[in-house]
């Protein structure tokens, strides 16, 4: 008998049997089901299973939080259920039948940016490290930077920019590739399209504002400015969407005999032309408008209020999937301002959720079964993976989730009120401090301390006062 056979059989029974499963797959910690009839799933009984840390419905998928052993459990489950192994893409396609328009749009946005996150995290850490060794005067009585004191570190500083530039200045290449991949168009042509937005032939986007003269292509009857779109998000998304649309439509009408030659040419060339004449300028303006609104809101006299609301509601946004929209805003802020004051609040919210679990470990310190769930959940949350903590502990009891939201609110106000900026998206937990601009590391460390202490204290107090002790049913 396999290790998870009994648990897998019970889950299958409570979820409505094999006939109720349209598609099933898994991610790092969760089983993802697309159910033919979601109402047949007995959520209460499923959450009683020892291996289950929690359940919720997101993006049209009924998700069961298992934890780090999800891969092994999944293999046992599909054998018992008699369903075939399915890709995540298949699951997402099937899930769309259970999604409204807003959920579909958010799902598309997530599919574009999720493959880019590892690169953005690495880039953020690299920029943070370069700032520490190149901008902070740590040596010789705080009069000299590490780079100034050593040729080795000066070489490291210069070398690391090779990676940083590739990630951030050439970000449109990754975006157009991700869009083409998402839409089912030719990925290599998506890459080529992205390169045409950041080619060395073009004036760098960062030099346009102070340029006395902008080069252009002269077609006799018309001229097109030769401007690059380094680090720009929206122009790349628009260009990728137009290219993908053209290619997919042309495939339908052009005979297969000449498709290989005609389709790439008639989809790529018009897309590049439109990108540099219409889509790029419009996207640039829209992106600047969005980033200016967010930045102005966060730095205005009412910035504290924006921070308080965002810090309080970010964790609930994760449940709905709406948090995926922040990736695009963060990247736009980075391209316009050289950093983001939104992402630090996200990292603080994650830390607050982990801290609430830390308090639950103390409260349930004599419960060995509970500690098997809560200790790994707290560790993973502090390292940026929040699902086991949120769905396995905090939402299960209710009051730790509320305590974490309050702690996140206070920490966010401190962060925004002090003007904390991050170089980039980073690891959304304690290691997130490595992505903060050097001059704000001290303040962010204070905000982190608040995001740890307040949720811990409030969780313990709420437990003693019986405040907010609820059974939070995520899919009802």
Automatic annotation (TrEMBL):
<keyword id="KW-0472">Membrane</keyword>
<dbReference type="InterPro" id="IPR013013">
    <property type="entry name" value="PTS_EIIC_1"/>
</dbReference>
<feature type="transmembrane region" description="Helical">
    <location>
        <begin position="258"/>
        <end position="282"/>
    </location>
</feature>
<feature type="transmembrane region" description="Helical">
    <location>
        <begin position="342"/>
        <end position="363"/>
    </location>
</feature>
<keyword id="KW-1003">Cell membrane</keyword>
<feature type="transmembrane region" description="Helical">
    <location>
        <begin position="158"/>
        <end position="180"/>
    </location>
</feature>
<keyword id="KW-0812">Transmembrane</keyword>
<dbReference type="InterPro" id="IPR003352">
    <property type="entry name" value="PTS_EIIC"/>
</dbReference>
<feature type="domain" description="PTS EIIB type-1">
    <location>
        <begin position="5"/>
        <end position="87"/>
    </location>
</feature>
<feature type="transmembrane region" description="Helical">
    <location>
        <begin position="401"/>
        <end position="420"/>
    </location>
</feature>
<dbReference type="GO" id="GO:0016740">
    <property type="term" value="F:transferase activity"/>
</dbReference>
<keyword id="KW-0418">Kinase</keyword>
<keyword id="KW-0762">Sugar transport</keyword>
<feature type="transmembrane region" description="Helical">
    <location>
        <begin position="227"/>
        <end position="246"/>
    </location>
</feature>
<keyword id="KW-0808">Transferase</keyword>
<feature type="active site" description="Phosphocysteine intermediate; for EIIB activity">
    <location>
        <position position="27"/>
    </location>
</feature>
<feature type="transmembrane region" description="Helical">
    <location>
        <begin position="187"/>
        <end position="207"/>
    </location>
</feature>
<dbReference type="InterPro" id="IPR036878">
    <property type="entry name" value="Glu_permease_IIB"/>
</dbReference>
<dbReference type="InterPro" id="IPR011296">
    <property type="entry name" value="PTS_IIBC_treh"/>
</dbReference>
<feature type="transmembrane region" description="Helical">
    <location>
        <begin position="375"/>
        <end position="394"/>
    </location>
</feature>
<dbReference type="InterPro" id="IPR050558">
    <property type="entry name" value="PTS_Sugar-Specific_Components"/>
</dbReference>
<feature type="transmembrane region" description="Helical">
    <location>
        <begin position="109"/>
        <end position="129"/>
    </location>
</feature>
<keyword id="KW-0813">Transport</keyword>
<protein>
    <submittedName>
        <fullName>PTS system trehalose-specific EIIBC component</fullName>
        <ecNumber>2.7.1.201</ecNumber>
    </submittedName>
</protein>
<feature type="transmembrane region" description="Helical">
    <location>
        <begin position="302"/>
        <end position="322"/>
    </location>
</feature>
<feature type="transmembrane region" description="Helical">
    <location>
        <begin position="440"/>
        <end position="462"/>
    </location>
</feature>
<feature type="domain" description="PTS EIIC type-1">
    <location>
        <begin position="107"/>
        <end position="476"/>
    </location>
</feature>
<dbReference type="InterPro" id="IPR001996">
    <property type="entry name" value="PTS_IIB_1"/>
</dbReference>
<keyword id="KW-0598">Phosphotransferase system</keyword>
<dbReference type="Pfam" id="PF00367">
    <property type="entry name" value="PTS_EIIB"/>
</dbReference>
<dbReference type="InterPro" id="IPR018113">
    <property type="entry name" value="PTrfase_EIIB_Cys"/>
</dbReference>
<dbReference type="Pfam" id="PF02378">
    <property type="entry name" value="PTS_EIIC"/>
</dbReference>
<keyword id="KW-1133">Transmembrane helix</keyword>
